[in-house]
Backbone:
């Protein structure tokens, strides 16, 4: 075996929908401000007793069912999250226990909003190294636990949910090389800090960095994967702001790609945003199976990780 491929995807979102109009009754904001600055119309909010591992397990069950695999087939499970409440056990161990896995390597990855693509790359590397053969990679977040509901600059942005993919070993690699890195001098630009922890960010600085630096890095991801941007069939960027997503896709030159815009209905779900958005593209069959899709996460750290996969 020389690589891995994504064979299935699945997602879970809580039932409760929070609209911009409802938010405007809580803080001094408006539907018009939120739509025009970020593009968000609604977001999903987890119930008080619904946890990061609850949502992760539900997304994982769907991905496994779509893959036609049992939990006991999985030998590597990674959960990308920055909103786990407990320090130990990690979310991956809890998901493994809930789903009845046998002896998987169970690892959490915390690089905030770029966590899912980091976790996907480590699973691909484990398979390439022969240390795993069937992997489950999950992004799950309950950002609303770390949200100051009196701060209009942050509370309008966040949502909860989870997405998961199943990876298997493949003779022909369908998960391209990862391009990842960080910007240490902007390490504090996106934060969940303090106890129990509150989400905050330097919004304008992050916006400037994302719109000026990410097109170059996105092109590098494509180049290293041997894919011309115009040959991409899909682009799934971290779903933080439509005003970042749309110009970035345009500046990449991905003229034929379907661009995921799930931020509109789901808000910013940090490490869960890419697998949720990818799962919806697949569910609606907006990208053909086997077609190249760019996944690109960025956020706290500031960290980023991008790779091109073949669509399941
Ligand atoms: C967060 C973000 C949407 C804010 O948009 P912005 O245009 O930069 O807005 P600013 O923070 O400069 O605020 C502009 C004004 O709107 C006000 N404002 C902030 N939130 C508001 C809200 N929800 N409703 C109404 N007004 C609001 C501010 O108080 C400010 O008012 P002032 O001009 O009177 O001082 C945007 O900066 C962004 O998306 N940044 C990148 C985020 C990101 O990608 N993070 C990494 C991954 S999580």
Residues:
């Amino acid at each position: 075996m020389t690589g891995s491929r994504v064979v299935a995807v699945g997602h879970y979102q809580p039932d409760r929908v929070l609209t911009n109009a409802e938010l405007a009754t809580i803080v001094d904001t408006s539907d018009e401000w939120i739509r025009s600055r970020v593009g968000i119309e609604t977001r999903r909010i987890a119930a008080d007793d619904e946890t990061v591992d609850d949502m992760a397990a539900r997304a994982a069950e769907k991905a496994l069912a779509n893959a036609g695999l049992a939990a006991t087939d999985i030998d590597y499970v990674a959960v990308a999250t920055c909103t786990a409440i407990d320090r130990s056990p990690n979310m991956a161990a809890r998901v493994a226990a809930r789903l009845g896995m046998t002896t998987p390597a169970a690892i959490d990855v915390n690089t905030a909003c770029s966590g899912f693509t980091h976790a996907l790359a480590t699973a691909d590397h484990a398979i390439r190294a022969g240390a795993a053969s069937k992997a489950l990679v999950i992004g799950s977040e309950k950002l609303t636990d770390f949200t100051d509901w009196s701060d209009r600059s942050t509370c309008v942005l966040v949502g909860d949910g989870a997405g998961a993919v199943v990876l298997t070993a493949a003779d022909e690699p369908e998960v391209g090389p990862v391009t990842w890195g960080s910007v240490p001098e902007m390490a504090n630009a996106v934060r969940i800090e303090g106890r129990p922890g509150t989400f905050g960010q330097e919004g304008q600085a992050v916006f400037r960095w994302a719109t000026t630096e990410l097109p170059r890095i996105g092109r590098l991801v494509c180049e290293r994967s041997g894919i011309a941007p115009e040959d991409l069939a899909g682009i799934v960027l971290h779903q933080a702001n439509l005003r970042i997503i749309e110009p970035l896709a345009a500046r990449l030159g991905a003229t034929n790609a379907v661009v995921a815009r799930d931020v509109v209905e789901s808000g910013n779900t940090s490490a869960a945003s890419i697998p949720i958005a990818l799962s919806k593209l697949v569910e609606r069959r907006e990208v053909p199976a086997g077609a190249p899709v760019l996944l690109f996460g960025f956020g706290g750290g500031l960290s980023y990780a991008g790779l091109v996969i073949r669509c399941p």
About this structure: Residues 234 and 258 are 5 Å apart (CA to CA).
